[in-house]
Amino acid sequence: MKYKILNTDNIIKYLKSIENIKKYFGEDNLIAKEIGDGNLNFVFLVLSCDDSSKALIVKQAVPYIRCLGEEYLLKKERMTYEIRSLRIFGTISPDFITKLYFTCESMSVLVMQYLDNHTILRGSMIDKIKYNKFSDHISTYLSKVLFHTSSLYLSSEQKNELQDKFNGNNEMCKLTEDYVFTFAFMQHPSNDTANIKNNPLANKIFDDTKFKEKVLQLKYIFMNSTDCLLHGDLHTGSIMLNTNETYIIDSEFAFVGPFGFDIGALLANLTSAYIHHTIVSKDEEYKKWILKTIYDILTMFKNKFLQLWQQTKDSALITDGFVDNTTLKNYKNSFIQNIIRQSVGFAGCEMIRRIFGAAGVDEIRGIKDKNSKDKAEILVFDIGRKFVIEYNDINSPEDIISTITKCESLTKNIT
Questions:
Q1: Which of 65-79, 136-150, 297-311 has the lowest mean pLDDT?
Q2: Which pLDDT band, with edges at 50, 70 and 90, does 414 fall under?
Q3: Are 234 and 258 in contact (CB under 8 A)?
Q4: Which of 72, 156, 306, 358 suits a disulfide with 65, CB 3.0-4.6 Å?
Q5: How far is CA 249 from CA 7, 135, 220, 238, 288, in A?
Q6: Which CATH fold topology does 11-113 show?
Q7: Contact 185, 202 (CB under 8 A)
Q8: Residues 68-87, mean pLDDT to the nearest whole number
């Protein structure tokens, strides 16, 4: 089908031309509402007027960056990679991916399950809601997807085929290179100029050569590693959940990249939530829950990843019998430690870029009181910088927790 941009006026007619959607809604009268507030795409909720239990989400990519305007061009084909990645993620880890009712790469459209009983994790954490199954869920998703799309599991032929499916998503990768690893750490027109003006932290990071040298290391890893298939933007706004279920959404940044990148994005956002409650709510119980969640995710991920590896005898990397068990065990432990280290470095870049860059996060940039916001940004800066500078020295999840709490104690006396 020839591409056209959907809106509330034409979307119903379009959906009624799709056999699978006609089957779902039957002859019901439908209504469509635009509900998306994301940076890139348009999202619609389509509801049956005759049966309140029937509803679907329609997501379409348009050929520009939605939050910046039509003059900021961006290929709509990014939706192709979201469709492809969701299908792969859903095959590997189906419990955490929404049901897809229809996809069309030429229209850059996907139609999927409506999660009416779930909330976005970011807002829920601002509201101090605990999800005690989340650590288990997200560590299962990460371990399964990262392992099963890597050379630790796939044959060389399978891995090359996977890379071929995602090599074309270079425009989204370039966005990450620019906005996560570059622009926010220098004078650039895309930055939050109002926040940078008269902000001593901005000049501090712009002139910080030690920090920038480490960022260049991490950017190079991001640009040149082809470890596994990644979501590519796994922050707390890309996770919907309730007390029993967790779903991963919005994977248009999907690409084959470094093991630690998705984990790092998640770590950054959980740490930012911790900082929010350090400064704003001062809820010590909830802060402890966040730290426990970070620790549990990393520990569970390590154990589950190693267990999957133990169950796999042959892959592109390992041939059964190549090395003795002791040597292989040591190699695996070192390998997983390096994943965690890199994730910490990526987390630091993600945290600091949210202070000055084009896209902030509600838990920091949304703080209304200026004095509190300034304090939060100082703590984001201190933890994020420490993560970047010292990522190669991290040996355990305990080291990460220690870094967070030590930086917090050093900034407690800021007025």
A1: 65-79
A2: low
A3: no
A4: 72
A5: 21, 17, 27, 5, 27
A6: Phosphorylase Kinase; domain 1 (3.30.200)
A7: no
A8: 92
Q: Are 286 and 256 in contact (CB under 8 A)?
A: no
Exposure string of 126-142, with b = 16+ CB inside 10 Å and e = fewer, is bebeebeebbebbbbbb
Helix, strand, coil % (nearest 5) of the chain?
Answer: 55, 10, 35
Q: In angstroms, what CA-CA distances link 73 with 37, 110, 321, 396?
A: 18, 21, 52, 42
At 154, the amino acid letter reads: L
Residue showing tokens 């039509």: 70
- Predicted confidence at residue 32, as pLDDT, reads 98
Parts of the chain belonging to CATH 3.30.200.20? 11-113
Q: Is the pLDDT of residue 413 over 70?
A: no
Q: What pTM was computed for the model?
A: 0.95
Q: Is residue 344 within 8 Å of 394, Cβ to Cβ?
A: yes
Class for the domain spanning 119-410? alpha beta
The pair of structure tokens assigned to 8 is: 């509330």
Contact 117, 242 (CB under 8 A): yes
pLDDT per residue as tens digits for the range 347-357: 999 999 999 99
Range(s) for CATH 3.90.1200.10 in the chain?
Answer: 119-410
Across the beta sheet with 246-248, the strand order is 119-120, 239-241, 246-248
In 311-369, alpha helices (H): 325-356, 362-365
